[in-house]
Design a protein that fits this description.
single chain; 378 residues; alpha+beta; 15 helices; 50% helix; 11% strand
Length: 378
């Protein structure tokens, strides 16, 4: 009797296991097998928040009618300057239907390329799951184009889905980008001869000048695409739309503006109108630098070396026209130029050099013409 009971229990257990296996197999069979992933890059736009371009991940499942681009988004910011300097903006991954995502950027005249990713079915499913989990967290990250911009967020999620692969991303990044800091990497895309590049490099300091290694260098959409291609994780790009924004250099370039500023500084000190114009320009830029360094919460504005030549003290002490004051200013400006010329950890562009040189020349003029200034005041 006991032997019969044992056989019955064993048979019942076998049937239960077989039923569970059949249920698991049926669930596996119902999962879509046509899951595809693409890395999407968007060319830069005309504003400061879009001048570095954009990156996203496109996930597609034709049999289920699903086609979304997972993109880093922030709420509508209105005026860019006040939004970026008066408060800390939050951003996060948001799914957008691919046709709408493409149309939004095409309407801005920006180009779009997509790179099919060489993922297994399981990796593609894992990537989609991780993207959904990131979306569920909402807009919880600070807007930071240096540490967690769109390219970095895409890379984090993508490499997490490829956790089982022996990736050599750090060595690939160092080979593709043999640069010491992020400013040198950005300079390949932010031309200082254009106003956006000139202003961007002039205002941002601190973090962009820190040394970086490996995957931390992948801050630009095109650089991540090149790394994925070299690791054979992505196939050649398909162009969705070509950029239509004008890339013609401006007629009045930053170099022309700074050259005019330098010429203006050559006018003899007896022309008080010139001094007033230069004082206004100097004051506005000094206040702007103080604002973005000490008030702004924008990442990358922790410190700016231009605060040394451009600071409010000369404006506050404008009435003190003693020779000692002007000589002291000249020494500080000259030391600043020498320091920047030999500081290899930072790019110092010709435009900035000309501006500081102009101020130095003007200060020297005043230091050798104190008597003339006093006679004019009498």
């Amino acid at each position: 009797m006991k032997r019969l009971a044992t056989y019955l229990i064993a048979l019942f257990s076998t049937l239960c296991v077989a039923a569970q296996d059949m249920q698991a197999d049926s669930v596996t069979l119902t999962l879509p097998t046509d899951v595809y992933a693409y890395y999407v890059t968007v060319t830069p736009g005309n504003t400061f928040t879009t001048m570095l371009g954009h990156a996203a991940l496109r996930m597609q499942c034709p049999s289920a009618g699903l086609d979304y681009c997972f993109t880093v988004k922030a709420p509508e910011i209105g005026n860019e300057f006040t939004a970026m300097t008066l408060r800390t903006l939050k951003a996060g991954l948001v799914p957008e239907e691919t046709p709408q995502f493409f149309q939004d950027y095409i309407s801005e005249g920006r180009g779009i390329d997509e790179y099919p990713l060489n993922l297994t079915l399981q990796e593609a499913r894992t990537l989609w799951r991780l993207l959904d989990e990131e979306v569920a967290r909402g807009l919880y990250r600070n807007v930071d184009y240096i540490h967690n911009g769109c390219t970095q967020q895409v890379a984090i999620v993508l490499f997490a889905a490829l956790g089982q692969r022996p990736l050599r991303i750090d060595s690939v990044a160092n080979t593709l980008l043999p640069y010491e800091n992020r400013r040198q990497i950005l300079a390949r895309y932010m031309n200082p001869s254009y106003w956006k590049g000139f202003v961007g490099h002039s205002l941002y300091g601190g973090t962009p000048d820190e040394s970086v290694y490996g995957r931390a260098k992948l801050i630009m959409p095109a650089d991540l695409a090149a790394a994925l291609r070299q690791m054979e994780l992505a196939r050649p790009a398909t162009t969705v739309a070509k950029p239509t924004l004008s890339t013609t250099p401006p007629a009045f370039s930053p170099l022309m503006a700074t050259a005019l500023f330098l010429l203006l500084c050559q006018i003899p000190v007896r022309h008080s109108v010139v001094d007033k114009v230069l004082l206004i320009v100097y004051s506005l830029f000094a206040l702007l630098l103080c604002w973005i360094v000490f008030v702004s919460k924008t990442p990358g504005t922790e410190w700016n070396w231009l605060l040394i030549p451009f600071n409010p003290l000369p404006v506050l002490l404008y009435k003190w026209r003693g020779r000692t004051f002007h000589v002291l200013c000249a020494v500080v400006l000259l030391a600043f130029l020498v320091f920047m010329a030999f500081n290899l950890n930072r790019l110092f562009f010709l435009e900035q050099l000309l501006v500081v040189t102009g101020i130095l020349i003007r200060v020297i003029y005043h230091s050798f013409n104190i008597n003339l200034l006093k006679q004019r005041q009498v």
